[in-house]
Amino acid sequence: MSKQGASEFLTEIGTITTLCHENLVKFIGYCSHEQLCLVYQYMVNNSVSHALFGERKTRSAAKAKLTWPVRVNICKGIARGLAYLHQESKVKIIHGDIKLGNVLLDENFTAKISDFGLAKPNNDRNNDPTTKIKGTRGYMAPEYAITGCLTTKADVFSFGIVALEIVTGKSNSKSLKEGPDYDYYLIDWAIVLNETGGNLEELVDPDLGKMYSSQEALHILNVALLCIEHSSSIRPTMSQVIDLLEGRTDIPNFQRDIHDKQQSEFRNFLKERREAFQISHEPHTSTDSLVTESFATESFITELT
Questions:
Q1: 124 belongs to the catalytic site
Q2: What is the pLDDT of residue 285?
Q3: Number of structural domains found in the chain
Q4: Half-sphere exposure of 233 (CA within 13 A, CB side)
Q5: Residues 6+ away with beta carbon under 8 Å from 21
Q6: Which residues cross the membrane (predicted)?
Q7: Which of 5, 21, 144, 221 is the most buried (most CB within 10 A)?
Q8: DSSP letters of 26-92?
Q9: pLDDT tens-digit map of 81-109
Q10: Domain shared by 138 and 204, yes or no
Q11: Cβ contact 147:232 at 8 Å
């Protein structure tokens, strides 16, 4: 009954046989005769999604096991697994469908990333747009949904959503409030609180009571907000996410470095654009157009600074 076909099945086999990491589900074998079947290590505690958003009759007991230390470790485990896929594995992989339903939990509640059916090798070809946008509503990076270009930064965005859900105990796939013109989702709540100077601690799952670290919660929420930046260039890499979560990198310093890097890169872009314009400039073009181009470019640089 799976919506994924033979191509996704073969992709998953080809992908997972090359991967080995503590935070990836362990692949045991497969069957391609009559029925397509992938065999994995049994995850006794199901998925994070099952524990947080499962059926009511089983949700309370399952969610009670997701204590604050467990949730922190799950966030860090997902980050380590993704960093391995993006930068450390023999074949660099973009997962393409990171969500709580694809994060399984073993007997020790160690996070294990699963379902590599949409995964793609991380190479230049993935920068080409595709007409077949695949992923899950509520977790998909905006640039991927708009352009069809899948990069590692799409996984970073999905991780940010996942981290928000783990801390808040709420799903980003369901609206928190329906308005006449706009539905309000978890991501909206987090962004508005952050941009208006509100108290981010309002987001923390009330089911945790006082059994959590306020400092840790705010820290993870701020890292998640970096990951869900609309511009992919502002988002950290997954290895940077780990450094941020572990406190090896300070968030304000990271933001300042990213801002400085963006300014520098954009200045270079404008310089190259201006030089290209001057080289290709036709002799019959009036001097006024050159002045206008130069003035606009310099004004943009001034505005940035």
A1: no
A2: 53
A3: 2
A4: 10
A5: 80, 81, 84, 88, 89
A6: none
A7: 144
A8: PEEEEE-SSS-EEEE---TT-BHHHHHHS-HHHHHHHHHT--HHHHHHHHHHHHHHHHIIIIISSS-
A9: 999 999 998 888 999 999 999 999 999 99
A10: yes
A11: no
Identify the residue whose tokens are 């006794």. 44
Phi-psi region of 42 (alpha: psi -120 to 50; beta: other; left: phi over 0): beta
pLDDT (average), residues 145-161: 93
**How far is it, in rounded angstroms, from Cα 110 to Cα 160?**
19
- The answer to whether 117 touches 9, Cβ cutoff 8 Å, is yes
Question: 281 and 143: one domain?
Answer: no
Both tokens of 185, joined, read 């989702």
Place of tokens 């049994």: 42
Residues 213, 264 share a domain: no
**Please, which pLDDT band fits residue 9 given cuts at 50, 70 and 90?**
confident
Residues 180 and 216 in one domain: yes
- CA gap 88, 86 in Å, rounded: 6
Stretch 4-22: mean pLDDT, rounded? 79
Least confident of 12-26, 122-136, 187-201: 122-136
Q: Given phi > 0 = left and psi -120 to 50 = alpha, else beta, which region is 148?
A: left
The per-residue pLDDT for 179 is 67
Report the C-alpha gap between 254 and 261 in whole angstroms.
10
On whether residue 168 sits in a domain, the answer given is: yes
Distances (CA, A) of 57 to 51, 63, 185: 11, 11, 25
Contact (Cβ atoms closer than 8 angstroms) between residue 216 and residue 72 = yes
Q: Which long-range contacts (CB under 8 A, 24 or more apart) does 53-57 make?
A: 53/100, 53/171
Question: Token pair of 147, please?
Answer: 């352009």
User: Which tokens belong to 13?
Assistant: 């086999």
Q: What percent of the chain has pLDDT over 90?
A: 50
Q: Is 219 helix (H, G, I), strand (E, B) or coil?
A: helix
Structure tokens at 117: 């059916």
Q: Which residues constitute the domain of residue 217?
A: 6-249
Please name which of 97, 100, 133, 132 lies closest in space to residue 115, comparing C-alpha atoms.
Answer: 97
